[in-house]
Design goal:
The protein is of the alpha+beta class and 334 residues long. It folds into 3 domains: 79 residues, 2-Layer Sandwich (Alpha-Beta Plaits); 202 residues, 4-Layer Sandwich (Metallo-beta-lactamase, Chain A), CATH 3.60.15; 37 residues, no CATH class. Helices cover 30% and strands 21% of the residues. The protein is built from 9 helices and 19 strands. Strand 7 and strand 8 form a beta hairpin. Helix 8 packs antiparallel against helix 9.
Length: 334
């Protein structure tokens, strides 16, 4: 829980607040957009909750913040709000909540399916959530879009006797994964589940399309609330290749989907023709982008922070690769 003594000056006065441990991962704004806003490099309370719905959404944000950066004076209803998770998005598709710092706060999703349930990325291995997933039929498959989102996949796999699915290029993150893929083109892995290799953010990054309706996009595509449009992951945060990532997004132009469910960023639902048009526009903007490889001190700082996180996650080889990239960029800048 957040520390009142570290409360950010950007918060408006009231029961809810954000402290300086915030890493601006956007989860609070996704859950309670009327109450959380941007301030400098942080999320803060821009408007205190004024009704039951806003209070509940803000309490959901308290529970889902991966770094415990959101606080509230009245914690008495948190156990009740915990029962909201996993939060139903649409039909058999749920948002897990309890975002994990081990995935940099990435969103995790749960799909209930007659042939076995799926977990897309992993949240915290939290006892309430585990029990709720058990009540919904457990987990058969854990889809890991890329190394950054492996999180606590091993704990979930062991508990549910589930298969972890990851690409060969990301294997270092889950060396004992039950299913290692080498594919480079989209294909149907199981009825209703199409896996789409999408190198860019990382070399082995993958997306998943469910029922030609729900696209779980990982760190490649998201909905930008401020611009009200679909966007491709920024070159600043693309570890492997921004150009490859843009080509990967072109693979989606022959797909039909209406739900965009990213690991980071706003989820949204658009009519299929609108989604396709916005996707094409995003691709066009990406090709017009002159910063295919961002060469700035900010980029170096981000890469060095990522290197540190990879070491903590026991991914030494990729950590060395990212540090080498940071060193190379630093020399170019000098």
């Amino acid at each position: 829980m957040a520390d009142m003594s570290k409360k950010l000056a950007g918060n408006v006065d009231g029961d809810f607040f954000v402290d300086s441990t915030c890493r601006n991962m956007d989860i609070c704004r996704q859950l309670a957009p009327e109450n959380f806003t941007y301030w400098q490099d942080y999320a803060v309370i821009g408007k205190q909750p004024e009704n039951e719905e806003e209070i509940r959404q803000s309490l959901q944000a308290v529970l889902c913040c991966p770094y415990g950066s959101i606080g509230t004076v009245d914690r008495s209803t948190l156990p009740d709000v915990m029962q909201d998770f996993p939060l139903q998005i649409d039909d058999e598709v749920y948002y897990c909540g309890f975002n994990s710092p081990k995935t940099s706060g990435g969103n995790s999703y749960f799909v209930q399916h007659k042939d076995g349930n799926w977990l897309f990325s992993t949240p915290k291995f939290q006892s309430h959530l585990v029990k709720r997933l058990e009540s919904l039929g457990g987990v058969s498959n854990i889809f890991i879009s890329h190394r950054d989102d492996a999180g606590e996949a091993e704990k979930f796999a062991q508990h549910f006797q589930a298969k972890r699915i990851i690409h060969r290029h990301e294997e270092e993150a889950q060396p004992h994964a039950e299913v290692i893929l080498d594919d480079t083109e989209p294909y149907e892995y199981q009825k209703d589940f199409q896996l789409i290799p999408a190198p860019g953010h990382t070399e082995g990054h993958m997306m998943m399309l469910y029922k030609n309706k729900y696209l779980f996009s990982g760190d490649s595509l998201f909905y930008d609330r401020r611009e009200a449009r679909v966007e491709i992951w920024s070159a600043l945060w693309t570890w492997y290749s921004y150009e490859e990532q843009t080509m990967s997004m072109e693979k989606l132009l022959d797909k039909d989907f209406e739900w965009l469910l990213p690991s980071h960023g706003q989820r949204t639902r658009l009519e299929k023709t609108v989604m396709k048009k916005q996707l094409q526009d995003a691709i066009d903007r990406a090709w017009d982008n002159n910063e295919i490889e961002v060469t700035t001190l900010e980029r170096v700082r981000i890469l060095e922070q990522y290197t540190k996180e990879l070491k903590e996650l026991n991914q030494p080889e990729y950590s060395k690769l990212m540090q080498a990239k940071a060193d190379w960029l630093r020399k170019l800048i000098k």
